[in-house]
Fold:
Amino acid sequence: MPAVSNWITEESIYRHDRPDFGERPDDRSHLRLREQQLGDLEGHRLDSPFADDPTAQHSVDRLWREPFRRPSGGESIADMYARVHRALRRHATDRPGAEIVLVTHGGPVRMASAPEPPTPGVPVPRVGVDNASVTSITVT
Structure:
């Protein structure tokens, strides 16, 4: 359900900024900043066994240790990095010089603030992102 909460937040901001709100220019824009797409892992309790791992949480943690590992039907950490950075560049290009407020989840915030793209074989640090925290990023 992360995509739905992003869409509601994004639509609320969009409507507030544009009282003459009409059709969304891209009705899939809410997906660009959603949490990582976990594919077959979606919907599993993190404390339940999953595949070859003792728990689904172990499977998720492995994705951060192996950033190019793609879960079945999902995306890798490297994929999420590329998706989030494309979204940030698009927002910056669509609104040059503007300060933009984007509301999203911890994974996309980690990727947006990562100093460089993931490297094969090198774990990606899971930097803490507190609930309702504010992260400032400059897109050039």
Q: What stands out?
A: The longest helix spans residues 77-94. The mean pLDDT is 80.
